[in-house]
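Hi V.,

You were right to ask for the full record rather than a summary. Here it is.
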Amino acid sequence: MRKLKTVKRIAKLKQNGCDLKPVPFHEFHWSGCYKMLQRFEGVRPSLHLFRDDCGADRDIPAGASPTDFRRVALVDLIPSVSKQRKIAALLDETTAFDVITGKLQRDDITVAAVRDIFDIVLDDYDGI
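Predicted structure:
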C-alpha cells in the first residue's frame, strides 16, 4: 500500500470509487495483519488501474541503497490472480480469529466463557 501514496495514484483510486489511503503496517499486532488483509480486499477491484504503472518512485533520496523498495515499480508488486485468491481465502479464515480475539478482550468475559471459546477453537483447528 505504501506505493499507492503518490498524489496521482491516490487520485486514480478516488476517481474509480476507492476512498482507501495507505496506512503503516504494524506487524506486531494481530489486528494490524487482519486490517491489512481487509484493506487489500477493498483495493483489489481497483488494482487493474495500475497495470501500466511501470515507473519507480521519483522521491528516492540520493543515498538510498540499490535494493531500496522505492526502486521497484508498482506493477511488480501487484499479486497474481492465484495469490489474490489465496489472500481472500486467508481473510475468510482469519475473520473467525478476529471475532474470537474481540470476545476474549471484553471486560465482562468469565473464565468459563474463555475455556469454552478455547475448546471450540481447538475442535475447529486441529493444528493448533
